Amino acid sequence: MLATAPALRDETTVSSRRARVARRSYRGLFAWLYLLPVLTYLVVFYAYPLYRNAELSLRDYTVRSFVSGDAPFIGFDNFRTMLDDPTFVPAVVHTTVFTFVSIGFQYAIGLALAVFFNRSFRLSGTLRALFLVPWLLPLIVSASTWSWMLNSESGVVNSALTAFGMPQINWLTSPTWSLTAVIIANIWIGIPFNLVILYSGLQAIPDDVFEAAALDGASGWRTFRHITLPLLRPVSAITLLLGFVYTLKVFDIIWIMTRGGPSNSSTTMSTWSYELGFGSLLPHFGPAAAVGNMLILVALVFGLVYIRYEKVQASR
Questions:
Q1: In the prediction, which pLDDT does 2 show?
Q2: Which pTM was predicted?
Q3: What secondary structure does DSSP assign to 8-58, as a single string?
Q4: What's domain 88-266's superfamily in CATH?
Q5: Residue 146 in contact with residue 189, Cβ under 8 Å?
Q6: Mean pLDDT of 253-265
Q7: Which of 21, 102, 149, 204 gives a 20 to 30 Å CA spacing to 5?
């Protein structure tokens, strides 16, 4: 009996270890099962399309080769074609102007409205809900509405200009004003997003901070500059990043309002990519994919810059 006691203890220890290993294995299996839907979604809707777009930009795809699957590998020739195209430089300039002017005004107006609504008053909730309307409407509805408002002959904007004795403007048909027209529409659509995010950030700032500033005699502008803006910096950073990524790929607003014209005066990289791939009887799938990959690369660079910025801020 005494001789077999250590053996029984060893068997019990081994059994308990096996049970713990089995439980860990089951927990790991269940964890992967919980992650499986997310992983499947990421692979199907993100990883695979990115891979296909990269492959498309490195091969000479035509309509026939899409069916036969024998597109020859041409390396970076599609990127050279993109860079040599006379539309490349105007598209880059228009995309830069469209993106930075849009997010600049969207952020400034959204921040001003967030500060305004941060003070409680009657009908505050109702007015905030009304400001969300541009964000909730389908983009095709918003773009069509702005196309009607900026119409040269029957638009309400030109009617208002005439009423004030100002000359009418060919917003959608003039190479000088077409880019301005789509920027105005995009700013209007993006303001609610900035308002919601920045308002949430302001609500997270403790009231004690503002009360202490008021007791110290700080003016409203000094409080905003030295307290509100610094404390709002993390929220502002993610707001600007998301606004940049969204604005960089805006297509439907521009396409519905101007189709990138006239004379490519409002063509951006996203509309140019679509036009190369689907805008003619002889589509250029490879260069179109190259343009799309360039947009992805730019968004990735800004995303990495944001991650680096957050690490630097966290280390301080």
A1: 46
A2: 0.86
A3: HHHHHHHHHHHHHHHHHHHHHHHHHHHHHHHHHHHIIIIIHHHHHHHHHHT
A4: MetI-like (1.10.3720.10)
A5: no
A6: 92
A7: 21
